[in-house]
Write a structure and sequence with these properties.
Rossmann fold; 2 domains; 6-stranded parallel beta sheet; 15 helices; 17 strands; binds adenosine-5'-diphosphate; binds 1,3-bisphosphoglyceric acid; EC 2.7.2.3
């Protein structure tokens, strides 16, 4: 698998301007990075290119901005990256145009420069050829080290691979290698836990996933959409009501494929989206109109743990509650601890991924006990479905 594309072993980077696509989409709170796993995982690629005398020009997105805004600037992330790699990381306020060209022009061999959020330009997500050409002017070669964004066919994750000599970074290599070893022929029964908040961008992949796994636990914001589709009143919860038909189709497909769908049977509900706000467990027939489901309830936790007990392999993306705020971390922490204990007892192979999921497992103190932690969430699930990932495919050309 790893050698079906060129890697850093196949190029002399000395003196070259190396455009490195990384994933800097890290969890943040109050301008500070709260989980540095993604930064730690890209460190080997950056350090290797810099130590070999290449000019490292980092391209990345942050959040889902509509145009330029301060809250989605990569500037604080670049500073946090410098702390992790223990080398200076310069920053340019734009990823194309004069600002970027000037910053790149000033680089010496071994320097590291981070360019501002590629998504400040709508052309990035459109994979616009003119924008790809603008980016390509800044580099001699392109290295893709963003496995966790490889399911996006965007200018910096895919388009550049058609314009410049393309190479896989060390994290890209390591992720594909490790996931292949753990999951190419997973020991059955296989269970997936999918939660989180990115409902519209992840719901479609569940339709394929239910044909690959024996049970699917749905939690987090994703579960609210399924519960609504089944007629449960979810009050003011995060819920994408227009996806109800998709949710019902997935339930039907799961039934036809022999995949058990495990949805919450109770919920922790609060009236404000804030830590330590008063909250109570409710049955699904009694969710208050003004309430928000922020975690799975105690009976649901028992069902999730029982489902983990029945599994030989677990894949997990998406926290089952708003774990950043106590006490809404209980369901995610309970499931994480249970899966970690089963893994330590050699009864489970556990693979989890996603920026926030990894943060949640670190919060639970069990990330090191999982069999493998991927930096990727959506990309990892799409890989699991067997879908070609554009950011990986372009490396194979
Ligand atoms: N019931 C819920 N209501 C609102 N947000 C939720 C809920 N459950 C989980 N979340 C949020 O989902 C986010 C993570 O989702 P997502 O980005 O899909 O995961 P990942 O980054 O691991 O792929 C977290 O910030 C968490 O607070
Ligand atoms: O954080 C990411 O994915 P994840 O939430 O699936 O882990 C990637 O940076 C992709 O971000 P996107 O889903 O906004 O394209």
């Amino acid at each position: 698998m790893t050698n079906s594309f060129r890697t850093l072993d196949d190029v002399d980077v000395k003196g070259k301007r190396v455009l490195v696509r990384v994933d800097l989409n890290v969890p943040m709170d109050g301008g500070k990075v709260t989980d540095a796993t993604r930064l730690e995982r890209i460190a080997p690629t950056i350090t290797e290119i810099s130590d070999k005398g290449g000019k490292v020009i980092l391209l990345a997105h942050f959040g889902r901005p509509k145009g330029r805004d301060d809250k989605n600037s990569l500037k604080p992330v670049a500073a946090a990256l410098a702390d992790v790699i223990k080398k200076p990381v310069a920053f340019a306020d734009d990823c194309v145009g004069d600002v970027a060209a000037k910053a790149v022009g000033a680089m010496k061999d071994g320097d590291i420069l981070c360019l501002e959020n590629t998504r400040f330009h709508p052309a990035e997500e459109k994979n616009d050829p003119t924008f790809v050409t603008e980016l390509a002017k800044l580099g001699d070669i392109w290295v893709n080290d963003a496995f966790s964004a490889a399911h996006r066919a965007h200018a910096s994750t895919e388009g550049l691979g058609h314009k410049l000599p393309a190479y896989a970074g060390r994290t890209m290599q390591a992720e594909l290698d490790a996931l292949g070893k753990a999951l190419d022929a997973p020991t059955k029964p296989v269970i997936a836990i999918v939660g989180g908040a990115k409902v519209s961008s992840k719901i479609d992949l569940l339709e394929n996933l239910v044909t690959k796994v024996d049970a699917l636990v749905i939690g987090g914001g994703m579960a609210n959409t399924f519960l609504h589709a089944q007629g449960v009143k979810v009050g003011k919860s995060l819920c994408e009501k227009d996806l109800a038909a998709t949710a019902l189709r997935i339930i039907d497909k799961a039934e036809a494929s022999g995949c058990a769908i495990i949805l919450p049977v109770d919920a922790i509900v609060a009236f404000h989206f804030a830590a330590n706000t008063p909250s109570h467990a409710y049955g699904l027939d009694a969710i208050p109109d003004e309430g928000m489901i922020l975690d799975v309830g105690p009976q649901s936790i028992e069902r999730i743990n029982a489902a983990i007990d029945d599994a030989a392999t677990l894949v997990w993306n998406g926290p089952v509650g708003a774990f950043e705020m106590t006490p809404f971390d209980r369901g995610t922490v309970a499931g994480a601890k249970h899966a970690a204990a089963r893994t330590k007892a050699k009864k489970l192979i556990s693979v989890a991924g996603g920026g926030d999921t990894v943060a949640a497992l670190n919060h639970a103190g069990v990330a090191d006990d999982f069999s493998y932690i991927s930096t990727a969430g959506g990309a990892f699930l799409e890989w699991m479905e067997g879908k070609p990932l554009p950011g990986v495919e372009v490396l194979k050309k």
